[in-house]
Amino acid sequence: MSGVIYWLDMAGVIVFALSGVILACRSRMDPFGMLVLAAVTGIGGGTLRDLVLGVRPVFWVTDPTYLWVILATVGVSLVGFHYIHRLSRGFLPVADAFGLALFTVIGTHKALLLGASGVVAVLMGMMTGVAGGMIRDVLAQRVPMVLREEIYATAALAGGIVYVAFDALNAPLTVAIAASLIVTLGLRLAAIHWRLALPVFAWVTLPPKTHNETAATLSTPQKAKERVRMIRRERKKH
């Protein structure tokens, strides 16, 4: 099963790197900018996860294949630039959703292998899934998806919890992986399709009323008094 985990990790790197390339194209970046966005999206979350868990060196240093995969993804994207340019606006969030699901499983699985508790493993899964995309969006001067109203980090948390729960029940690894992928991907795609969002709590501040709005809320006697005051003020001016 270690081979399955490895190839799932590679698939996540490819999908996330592609999402970085797409955003770079829409932001009118040069090939180097495409490479930077692809790299930070593909390995940014896993790098941060390894640093937090104390893994030295980080995964892509011990296995440079990840870097070659990112380079290959960018190279193929440059060759097929016109096809990528024609992709619909909905392709980026869908590709990002697949990367989120894959990296959530990988991050949670690796944290458990290193002896982390269930809570820490869930957080590491979420970090692996969302951190790379956050860095990508910040570099592209966009509000990161995880900070918007849409269900994003919540989907990663749910997928991580499902994986930890199945692991605690000693379920087969394939079952835990499949269940986590289905939950994370299902929640994220549902949020994209039906625009599902968490409730937003914010202070509501009312703008100051104009003179016409104030007059409209006054009763008839009040309007008469206000009219008299206005006439007196006008006479004083003259």
From TrEMBL:
Top-level division of the source organism's lineage: Bacteria
Topological type in the membrane: Multi-pass membrane protein
Keywords on record: Cell membrane, Membrane, Transmembrane, Transmembrane helix
Database matches in InterPro entries: Gly_transporter
UniProt entry tagged with the keyword Transmembrane: yes
Ranges of residues in domain Glycine transporter: 6-78, 94-167
Subcellular location: Cell membrane
Pfam families documented for this protein: Gly_transporter
Gene Ontology CC: plasma membrane
Ranges annotated as spanning the membrane: 6-25, 32-53, 65-84, 91-108, 114-135, 147-166, 172-191
Family of the protein in this entry: Belongs to the UPF0126 family.
Annotated protein name in UniProt: Trimeric intracellular cation channel family protein
UniProt organism field: Vreelandella andesensis
